[in-house]
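Researcher: For the record, we're logging two predictions in this thread. I'll number them. Prediction 1 follows.
Model: Prediction 1, sequence and structure:
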Amino acid sequence: MSAVRLGLCTALLAGSLAACGAGLKSQKDAPLDDLPPEEIYKRGELILETARKPGDSLRYFSEVERLYPYTEWAKRGLIMQAYVLHKSKEYEEARIAAQRYLDFYPGDEDAAYATYLMALSYYDEIDEVGRDQGLTFQALQSLRAVIEQYPDSEYAKSAMMKFDMAFDHLAGKEMEIGRYYLKRRNYTAAINRFKVVVQDFQTTTHTAEALHRLTEAYLALGFTDEAQTAAAILGHNYQSSPFYEDSFRLLKGQGLAPEAKGTGWLATIYRQMIKGEWL
């Protein structure tokens, strides 16, 4: 191919691409006032499926609600705004849109999904364990709303799973603070944190370690009855756990063994959890 023909083809290709880009840009920026609501909504769906950024579709779902309020398309546009905002990680805005949907259409079939989106927007903001746990509490409350208000919906099962994980997250926060105090030999403060896990978060993955750390902290303070009782609960419920092996070794080093003793709070836990004595 000659240089002239090559240059001509390159110029034509560049012009074609530029025209295509301009066409897409003009379509994106074109006013929507004269379009029927179904067309606006479908354009939003198309862009949501094909665009690299889901937020590019937000304009269409917002406009169909603005231009055709109180219609079926406005209702669909509003729930899609909540979805797109969540997908774009605009969590606070997603919650606002979902709440507007619930305010306008509380009995609609998508009310369960709007409630789930609100819960999900809190849940997805939960960061690493070391951060403030306020969002975790809000996520738990919102997830509970999905479970209790829409138990037969397709979102209930997912909400229950996420509720358990968020609950575990809170226990992890208590453990992190307890380990901090334990490392600095502030045993009383450490015990208070581990006690919360054993009493309030028994179903989480952190209970075995909490019982071991209680054994460790109580031994350091010379409270052997409490240490032995913590290890006894640990051995009964988590005998195969390496934490039980560590607690057993600590007790054995002082000539002690796991055994329920005394009348303290751990003895009460032992009677309730192991013997089923609740009175």
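Researcher: Logged. Prediction 2.
Model: Prediction 2, sequence and structure:
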Amino acid sequence: MRVTPISPERLVDLLAKRIHQLPGDSDRRLRVAVDGAAAARPGELADALVEPLRLLGRPVQRVSAGDFLRPASVRFEYGKQDPDAFHDLWLDEGALLREVLDPLEPGAGGLILPTFWDPATDRSTRARYLQLPPRGVLLLDGPFLLGRWLPFELTVHLTQSSAALARRTPADQHWTLSAHERYRTETDPAALADLTVRVDDPRHPALVEQD
């Protein structure tokens, strides 16, 4: 395994070009996952990709997995700090597939829902559907996105050592650490992802490549 330091700016440029140059029909819509714990800041990386992709002529829609959670009655069935429920039950995969990923399949209409559920109010966001034009790119960020048979054209996994993850996770969220460790050992997202980036310090990323 090779770990090669790269600047955040160069990482964004590399990813934008890789997304833009994905093979296939030039008009197809692309679904890209930026997978990682909150401490790895996957949302920030996904946000940083928006403008470079638009400059390449790609319409972009950002979506966060945190807006596609199940109702509190499901998420908290085993308590508000159950790591297995956090890993297994919080994400509403059915809603994410139905409202976002499946409408971007080749030949589908491209009409997607940018948000679905507000965990603060525990109610539907009542968001309006948006049209992602041909050549458009969906950028989805969140934890535990790999190994669920969700369809993506490109997956990026942000990995951290256990020590770095614990150091960068707020104390009141330390109950989630065992869920992330379980994800690492059971799913092995670094092996599943098209590209893995080590972000023990998100300001100093490094590409991880298998020999």
